[in-house]
Amino acid sequence: MNNAATIIVIEDEAQIRRFLRTTLTAEGYQVIEAETGKQGLTEAAMRKPDLIILDLGLPDMDGVEVVKGIRAWSSVPIVILSARAQESDKISALDAGADDYLVKPFGVGELLARIRVALRHVSSTVNGEEEGVFSVDELKVDMIHRKVTVSDAEVHLTPIEYRLLTVLVKHAGKVLTHRLLLKEVWGPNYVERAHYLRIYMGILRHKLEKDPARPRFLLTEVGVGYRLVAD
Amino acid sequence: MNEQRPDPDALLEKVQRAEAKRRRGRLKIFFGASAGVGKTFGMLLAAHERRAEGLDVVAGYVETHNRAETEQLLHGLETLPPRLVEHRDTQLREFDLDAALKRHPALILVDELAHTNAPGSRHPKRWQDVDELLDAGIDVYTAVNVQHIESLNDVVSQITGIPVWETVPDAVLAEANEIELIDLPPDELLQRLKEGKVYLPQQAERAAQNFFRKGNLIALRELALRRTADRVDAQMRDYREDHAIQDVWQVKERMLVCIGPGGNAENLVRAAYRLAQLLKAEWIVVYIETAKLQRLSREQRDAILRTLKLAEELGAETVTLSGHRLANEVIAYARTRNATRIVLGKPTLSGWKRWLFGSLVDTIVRLANDIDIHVVGKESNFLSQAGANPYFSRSRLYLGLASEEPSSLFKLREGYMWALAATAFCTAIAWFMLDHFDLANLIMVYLLGVVVVAARYGRGPSVLSSFLSVLLFDFCFVPPRFSFAVSDSQYLVTFAVMLLVALVISNMTANTHHQAKIAVHRERRIASLYAMSRELAATRGEGNLVRIAVKHVAEVFEAQAVILLPNDTGSIVYPKDEGSAQSCHGSDLSIAQWVYDHGQMAGQGTDTLPGGEVIYLPLKASSGMIGVLALLPLNPARIALPEQQRLLDTFTSQISLALERVRLAMEAQNVQMKMETEQLRNSLLSAISHDLRTPLAAIVGASSSLVRDGNTLASHARQELGQTIYDEAIRMAGLANNLLDMARLESGAVVLNRQWQPLEEVVGGALAGLTSRMVNHPVTIRLPHDLPLVEIDSMLIERVFANLLENAVKYTPPGTPITIAAASDQNELVVTVSDQGSGIPSGEEKRIFEKFHRVASEGNQGGAGLGLSICRAIVEAHGGRIWADNLPSGGAAFHFALPLTEPPFIENEEATQS
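Output (structure tokens, whole complex):
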């Protein structure tokens, strides 16, 4: 729990703002509110926040535009809030540079989890460490020695499977869009071939998960992409 | 007259007429005895007066004939520019009807009511233009001379010796609201003529000299005065009738007028009209066609057609009968129609000829016991010689029964050959009989031969046969044999008798043939109407109806036809399909539109736009205008016959009825659909309202409790309340999701985002979203490892899983397991979600997939009953199917099958190294 972290909440619905403010302040974060996209951009420029929570359904600007605007001069983590039907908006926002998303209605637990993940990444990259070993529960990925173990039993992965896993590990906890994964693992020519991704994710699940049908680590974010759970 | 209760129908008619009259414009006619009395002048004076009263007056068409004083009066009146029409190197100035309608003044002046419009105008006559103006509600002042009145036409031309071509029907005058007689004593008129104040066209000067003789002028003046007086009288009687309703006649006079060929027919009709007016009688004009009359020349037939048409215009009912003997037919028909009088023309023959050959008049007079006979005197043949109306010049067939075309010349010749053969045959027989029989018997053989020839081949061959028989009999059998001399003068009588017999029989058979032909024709026409009606009654769909109607109309009337229907905005459009060989192409949409708007016929042979070749008929049904039937007849004159018109009328009403029926059926269907949609909407609203209120009640209750007593409540109580609020809110979110899904699926706006997915992933996604709800139900997943990829929309199929799992949780007791299994074969992937609960009530397996259906034993689970119907919609949108049944071991199983297609090619890993 990072006590001094500043979070800017860009949301036009007063009730949600209130809920967010209450919750986040109770957790020790400092909360700044903005009602419109323009206001949000101004605040972001002036206040140098640690995290931005952005609602996609803003009245004055397209949420994706706000993301692009911020990404133009800052890499501050952005978590977007979306209503259920806006799948394409979600994906565009993630592709434009947002880090994660929450679907309304959401509970406090999810919210805090996402925030934690987003802030952790910042701190790790800011500190310049590249985590050499990633582990959660029985899964351990040693990127220095290129070894993957489940409950200390080594698992053999093909080069592509390994590459896929490392990309997920690099962004552990965050959602990664199909597009991004395809580009990182297979290359820009393969961005339209989501079935490759799915098949390989299935293979990874079978190799790494206790119950592949109900994965513990390699979660599917339906319609958006995949997420490697980090805790 | 008996005091009777007023006939309600007559009264209604009167009221309707009065109503129509109120809406119509008012017509004032300035009536004069001849040109030059000052009608235009009087009209303009009246117009100025009205204008001074503040009325909007426009001069539509005023003929000043360059007279200074008249032109002066035109100043100060707004004039409508004339329509210029090019006609044979000259420019004609015509009244612009469309401009007048557009301008729509309160009162318009239109001079020269009897004028014939230039070709290409909407109506052939100016009085028809005026009629349209009145229909549009515009008042009209107009001027006309007495010689232009239809029924007086012949009388005037007799008086003046000058034919008048431009006529105005009497109905126009009768319907006018006011007639002002512009009267000028003949002496004064002659004075004005001398002073040059009367316009005379150059060419007519000499004729005009004859016209303006004092005798003529006096007679014309008397005619005009008398006509005006008649009208006043009629007005008075109408007034009395309106105010003394008991004066309704119970028994109406009915007149039967017989016309035949011969120049007298038209005069007879006009005279009959005047008589009918006088007697206030209904009149029927009858033309009886005998076999003999069938052989009339083309001009004579045209004349008869013209006369019949004139009779109809003057308000008669016309009937064409066919018969054998004129007098008997006339009397019989008169009896059938309860005619009280018969009107005939004066007999054509006189003196001894009349005595010998008899005349129709005499026969009828003798036969009619109780019917009055009027004989109308003969008028000059002047008009009938004046040349054929070009309108009828194209008639080829007359009633379809015309004399056989010369193409049957072959047939005739054949008849004569047979006549020869028969006679020869008879001679041969007689020869053999000669030795055994008397000469008298031999004659019988010949007679038989002649009779047979007459019966089979008609008049000509039979006459030939009888002559030949006589000759041969004389030559071969009558002593002295082999010579043409006749020793016994008895045989002369025999010859004569044989000839007569032959003629009589052939005549009889010819007549019978004729009658049979007529009957066949009539029957054929009725049969065609019946056939069309029957086919129409059995047809559905507007397109089919139209096709059938066109086919029948084309057959019966020997025409090309097309039915033009309006689109949604009421404008007539061309039909969408290409039509058949019987379709009439190139019909004019603007004329069709006019017909549709006005409900009247137009086109060839009518009063409106008669320029083209096509006839446009309105299709009118009880609910209003349905469309327009355009007909291009092969034989326009035939179509113009009153009888064909009536048949056409019957056909069009049948077609209109059928079209109306189709339209009403469609409307009924729409109404049905609307009703069902309403019902559905109501169910939805009631279901939602219940399912929203329930969780809301819990939320409001729990939260208000927290707000009020939050501080004093124990922490576990607070926890519980908070949890309640959370749970109920999640439930409402679920309901909202379902509703949204349903709305999207129903509106058809869902576009499947199909991607190749492993089923496992979708199952995992669904389970992940439901973990909290499924804590009490262990889930077993049995998916084969080699399950192929399916091309599905993962979000939607996830919802299917989610709904099925939620259902399982809702309807099974806690602790019971839920199983998800899948299997695939060549064509489909079948997924089964089964539980161990109480199962589906038997008989409900199909119904549970319907919207808003909830199994009765549900309690207050809520959910609006939409889940399974959403599943079905999604699965079916993927081209799959969904069904449910009960497991033999207890519990329900829900299955859905998704179609499998060839999955995409996955490259080998080495190839994809980048």
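Helices of chain A lie at 14-26, 37-47, 63-71, 87-96, 108-126, 159-170, 178-185, 194-208.
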